[in-house]
Amino acid sequence: MSTDTDDQVLSYPLPAPSALEPPPEWVQLRERCPVAHVRLASGDSAMMLTRYADIRQVLSDPRFTRDLSADGAARTTANEGGSAFENAEAAALVSGERHQSWRRLVMKWFTAKQILAMQQRMETMVNSLVDDMVAKGAPADLLASVGFPFPVWVICDLLGIPDIDRDKLAYWSNTMLSMTQYTQQEIDAAQLEFRQYMTAHITSKRDNPGPDLISELLTVVDEGQRLTEQELIFTAQGILVAGHETTSNMIGKMMAMLLADRARWEQLLQDPALVRTAVEEALRYDANSGFGLPRFLTHDAEIAGHSVPRGTTLVCSLSAANRDERAFERADAMDLTRTPNPHLAFGAGPHSCVGQTLARTELQTVLTLLLRRLPTLALAVPPDALPRRTGLLVGGLEQVLVRW
């Protein structure tokens, strides 16, 4: 690979040998070309970052905005209406002064105390899902049996949405994260359905509040301000997208990584106290996290010694940064005892994921109960035969076939 960033334009996302392996270009890019030219699925040009320190710098710098609806920003998808990143109204809620107010209101529902109160219900749900999977017999798709239904149930519980509507939520979530999987007509129709559904749900909660986030946000006040109905809808949308699809896919990838090398699973069976650090290491080691975090430059900047002009769209490859040898000793090895582990799976800076405590708890709950219930769990297919999920901004697997 050339050392000159202007010599080569790479198609993004970069292809990888398998669903669990990283693109071989990452090592070379971090070493020789930390600010690389890429072409997105839309055909637009952007710059990709792969080094840990550079990405932390960008995610913490207010000059790099999340608003990809701005004039000159690259489109992440070929769809005419753009992706979740290009929604100007949603971007306004998570940018500037209003963002901090919104974050304070929402964060009250993602504290350790609040998540602990949900713990027993989570364990009950996972046990029920595992019961159903075992009853149907092996081989089973762990992703379809546990990975996908569990997080969307948690989101239903959090938002006060009836469990019977979880399939609708899952479909709406997928369309909001589409790069190439859905047509613009399908995306527009799904977003309209979601907006209508949430508008009716908010009205219902206003009349009959319950112990859920929407009911709480209808009454809570921060610095004299309440969330508008539009902001409530975008809050629900953000929680759905971040809390369902990413966690569902991570459950599948985490289990695939741990079962791909039997020594890892046996290590956890021998020492279940490693569940917490194992989850963190799975988040770091994940080579298939998806598109990454895009940012748009409103001012000229210098990154890794390169002058990057205002109007540039940057793509922060979190997975590549989490494999950076400068930040992690033996970065290419999965170490279930690794600590500290300051990975970037949940972003960094003022826009880091508000639901990361919930996501961690969900992952730990699934892993703990599977270790306890199914100690003989194993992949039913070779690791390199696991099918990669494509067409969405979030990376994942189509299925994880297991036996026990």
TrEMBL record:
Keyword vocabulary terms for this entry: Heme, Iron, Metal-binding, Monooxygenase, Oxidoreductase
The protein's required cofactors: heme
Keyword check for Nucleus: no
A Pfam family per the record: p450
Domain of life: Bacteria
GO molecular function annotations of the record: heme binding; iron ion binding; monooxygenase activity; oxidoreductase activity, acting on paired donors, with incorporation or reduction of molecular oxygen
Family membership noted in the UniProt record: Belongs to the cytochrome P450 family.
PANTHER family per record: CYTOCHROME P450 BJ-1, P450, PUTATIVE (EUROFUNG)-RELATED
Protein name according to UniProt: Putative cytochrome P450 hydroxylase
